[in-house]
Amino acid sequence: MLLNENLGPADIDRLVDEKNATASRLIFTDQSIFELEQEKLFAKAWLYVGHTSEIPNEGDYVTRQMATDPVILTRGEHGKIHVLLNSCSHRGTLLCTSDVGSSRGFVCAYHGWAFGLDGSLKATADDMELYDGKVDFKTLNLKTAARVDTYAGLIFATWDEAAPDLADYLGDARWYLDLYHNRTPEGMEVLGAPHRWVVDANWKTGAVNFGADGPHAVKVHGPITAATFGMPAQTVRDSLLNSPAVSMGNGHNGILPLIPESLRDQLPDYPGYPADLIELYEQMLTPEQQAMSKHLIGGVQTMFPNFSSVQAPAIFNPEEPPVNMLAIRVWQPVSATQMEIWNWFLVEKETTDEWKQKAMQMGVRTFSVAGTFDQDDAEAWAGINIGVAGHQSRQGDMNFQMALAYRDKIIPDFPGPGAAYPSNYGEVTEFDILLEWQKYMSA
After folding, report:
1. 240 pLDDT above the threshold of 90
2. Superfamily of chain region 47-167
3. Which helix (H) or strand (E) holds 326?
4. What is the distance of C-alpha 160 from the center of its chain?
5. Within its chain, how far is the Cα of 240 from the centroid?
6. CB 152 within 8 A of CB 177
7. What's the maximum distance between 2 C-alpha atoms anywhere in the chain?
8. How far apart are CA 331 and CA 333, in angstroms?
9. What is the pLDDT of residues 155-196, one digit of tens each?
10. Among 157, 213, 264, 352, whose Cα sits 20 to 30 Å from the Cα of 45?
11. How far apart are alpha carbons 13 and 16 in whole angstroms?
């Protein structure tokens, strides 16, 4: 379809066709739609900000983004976590310019206004009495996120006072987050600072791909996928074709590639996991989650709108066993045709330093700015901008019509919550992200 480029909210229903499983290409390219997303979506949804292991002590902080807004994530008194708009309430100057640090508060470099870890105004440039009592200084505290909460060490925030509780927002997705983030008593820790790079593609491209696009793993990455997992390409395809994809509700979606049943007696349980932690997994995970984890050869998911994770047992030395890497990332919107990827690597706190080093190496080699998988993806995604830039090409639709064949094939006895479909190739879970996007944009 080709619509007027100056779109208003009333036009959104025309952009995603649920019955036909298609979406207008404009939602990936039009700047007016991008601007509307900031108001209708990113100002309302819960957004991933950081991990508790990044700010372990009082005064610790990191600077982040909530969509196009810069924020400070900090731990204040009594361990309370705050998310502050990183914009001085005096003249709007970026308040904190360091990526990470520890401080008793924040002082603006422009006029010297000082704020506490909770965003409260402590001092202006000069004596407050110079204002002659005509200013209510309580109105000049930093703007703070309306709500901040955590799950399994993952910190989320929202600007919307009326947003549902985080537990309700995540809903059934918590069962799947547990597989990667909540499988040992002490939980996960972040390995180093986030990797950041810019890709010429709309932020939804990454979110949809991780929500997740099974066929591209073989087509785009080709022999890299087979080499990384130590399996022939046909075996990888068989796994993806016959493994479940799950719609978890509220726009959260993912796939669970499993070892083909014909090969399970030839491979050890928990491929890529540190053997000394398996006892801990069995303490934390339910029997159903354990059965799933024993045969996972990956896991890719998106928590709506723009937080994703990917796990894979990578092999770079055939003489050594595979090592699981776990990457989490945020698809930060920059413009309609550009995003910045923020990417972190995580590992269990209880494992050895040697294993942590191996997990980090596997992550850098696979899912990072120089990683084999991300280089492939970035080239393909940037090609969308070029492919739909013209007058004729903008008139087409993004096609997700494999969903038509799979959306009614729900696995009746799947052990996890949500709606599970029998193939990573089904496109149902990818398209569900756009359906959730439409709900926010139409509200």
Report:
1. no
2. Rieske [2Fe-2S] iron-sulphur domain (2.102.10.10)
3. strand 323-335
4. 19
5. 21
6. yes
7. 80
8. 6
9. 999 999 999 999 999 999 999 999 999 999 999 999 999 999
10. 213
11. 6
